[in-house]
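Re: [ENG-882] Designed sequences occasionally contain unexpected residues at chain ends

Forwarding the minimal case from QA. Structure tokens:
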């Protein structure tokens, strides 16, 4: 049996998600049987011929992941249209522990939906048997949903009374990926097939830690304090430089040891047109070249992302970018500029900084509690620990605890450029793995050299091992995965009205107006 997921319909979105997961995958070609593809990932663009193929595949015992729209076509039935703000699983669900996932779009619900409760409490997903096989039908097509680029100000959970917030991607793309991962794990489990994918971090490290510094308006003294602090804690920071504010001492960034230096901006703005974005980055790049800094990465002011900016970032051939207006808290991905054009790799970070918490009046103890909870959640979900900071944010005691938590977890400390480079070598499309008689046969000519596999059995056991030609499952030292993340009982308050958002936005607008009037 081939250990791979087959893609039917428009493939690009599914390729992105399956690459994030590291699952062997391919567009369906030739014979479609349960032995040739463990699971089918179906895009809504499938035609009548492909629907007939899916029906036959199910009758033979296959597993299918699709939207409720496609599910209705397979069954020859109906579906109900519905606007979905967010979904959240029950404790006994196949999706238990994934948290609250923002959808924020119109979708469809199968008449037999039995999982993933929407914001109104109704079920939106079907999980169960279908025509002799197994199916999960989601309210939206994940492979299209991850392409959306709308932004919104969102609150983020904290046990403290005031919730921090930031302007981020409206769709929770990391949550969508979590839903897909759980779906694929379940659809392998019900067929008795081991779930195999490339591991997400170098070696067999349990996670990776990255620390990004946006140098907004920082003085030389501010920069020196943070740099010496990182050096003392042996943390390889990734600095995105606000060039206009720091052009008088750019030479200092060129002298940093064990750090990465990238471009944030010249003017601390993100524009809606290509011409001004181009001019802004070009000014910064010229000054970087004067002090011999090679910038591989770019991060836009305020985390803003738009297609005009993405085209310019691609034109300048940056190795990666990082804007939580596109994505946050997720594995790297490559954004869609338009239907046919992709930008450079995105390396997401957690969008709440110490500065965000300070604006809500948090004490250092509350800040530490906030980041501790984020770390615990991400470790439970096997996700990277990437955070960001500003030199003027201060509170190095909070950072010290954050660094210690990452070290205690066994995280590999990396710059964002190092992780981006490693990630680009982690290619799962075309990877050939066969399973027979409790042996995984890996075609090492199709496997990225030096990368590890995670193997998960239906009973929950897992192993993370170096990729090799033959893997005897009965000879592996199996372990139990980390305990699931205990989702807070009051999690849904993050989508209740947050009065601090309009108040803060109004105050910011007033401050900006006064500043502009004073300068004018």
């Amino acid at each position: 049996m081939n250990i791979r997921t087959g893609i039917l319909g428009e493939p690009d979105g599914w390729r992105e998600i399956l690459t994030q997961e590291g699952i062997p995958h391919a567009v369906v070609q030739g014979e479609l049987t349960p032995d040739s593809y463990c699971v089918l990932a179906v895009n809504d663009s499938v035609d009548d011929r492909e629907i007939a193929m899916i029906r036959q595949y199910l009758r033979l015992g296959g597993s299918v992941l699709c939207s409720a729209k496609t599910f209705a076509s397979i069954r020859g039935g109906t579906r109900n249209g519905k606007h979905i703000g967010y979904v959240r699983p029950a404790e006994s669900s196949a999706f238990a522990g994934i948290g609250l996932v923002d959808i924020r779009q119109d979708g469809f619900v199968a008449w037999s939906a039995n999982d993933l409760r929407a914001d109104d409490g109704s079920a939106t997903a079907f999980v169960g048997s279908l025509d002799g096989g197994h199916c999960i039908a989601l309210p939206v097509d994940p492979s299209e949903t991850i392409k959306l680029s709308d932004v919104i100000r969102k609150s983020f959970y904290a046990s403290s009374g005031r919730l921090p917030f930031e302007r981020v991607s409206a769709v929770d793309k990391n949550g969508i990926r979590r839903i897909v991962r759980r779906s694929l794990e379940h659809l392998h489990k019900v067929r008795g097939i081991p779930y195999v994918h490339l591991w997400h971090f170098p070696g067999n490290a349990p996670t990776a830690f990255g620390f990004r510094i946006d140098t907004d308006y920082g003085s030389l003294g501010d920069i020196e304090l943070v740099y010496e602090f990182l050096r003392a804690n042996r943390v390889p920071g990734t600095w995105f430089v606000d060039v206009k504010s720091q052009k008088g001492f750019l030479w200092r960034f060129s002298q940093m040891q064990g750090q990465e230096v990238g471009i944030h901006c010249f003017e601390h703005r993100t524009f809606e047109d290509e011409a001004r974005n181009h001019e802004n980055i070009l000014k910064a790049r010229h000054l970087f070249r004067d002090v011999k800094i090679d910038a591989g990465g770019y991060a836009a002011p305020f985390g803003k992302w738009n297609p005009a900016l993405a085209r310019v970032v691609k034109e300048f051939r940056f190795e990666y970018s990082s804007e939580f207006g596109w994505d946050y808290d997720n594995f790297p991905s490559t954004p869609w500029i338009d239907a046919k054009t992709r930008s450079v790799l995105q390396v997401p970070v957690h969008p709440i900084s110490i500065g965000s918490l300070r604006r809500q009046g948090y004490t250092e103890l509350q800040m530490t509690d906030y980041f501790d909870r984020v770390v615990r959640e991400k470790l439970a979900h096997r996700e990277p620990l990437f955070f960001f900071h500003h030199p003027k944010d201060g509170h190095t005691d909070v950072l010290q605890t954050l660094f210690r938590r990452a070290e205690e977890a066994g995280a590999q400390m990396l710059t964002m450029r190092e992780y981006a480079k490693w990630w680009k070598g982690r290619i799962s499309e075309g990877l050939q793995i066969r399973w027979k008689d409790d042996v995984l046969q890996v075609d090492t000519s199709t496997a990225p050299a030096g990368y590890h596999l995670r193997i998960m059995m239906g009973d929950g056991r897992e192993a993370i091992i170096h990729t090799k030609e033959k893997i005897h499952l009965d000879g592996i030292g199996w372990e139990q995965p980390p305990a699931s993340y205990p989702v807070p009982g009051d999690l849904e308050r993050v989508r209740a009205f947050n009065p601090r958002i309009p108040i803060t936005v109004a105050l910011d607008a007033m401050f900006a107006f006064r500043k502009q009037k004073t300068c004018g």
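QA comment: On inspection the terminal residues look reasonable. The longest helix spans residues 500-519. Proposing we downgrade this to a documentation issue.
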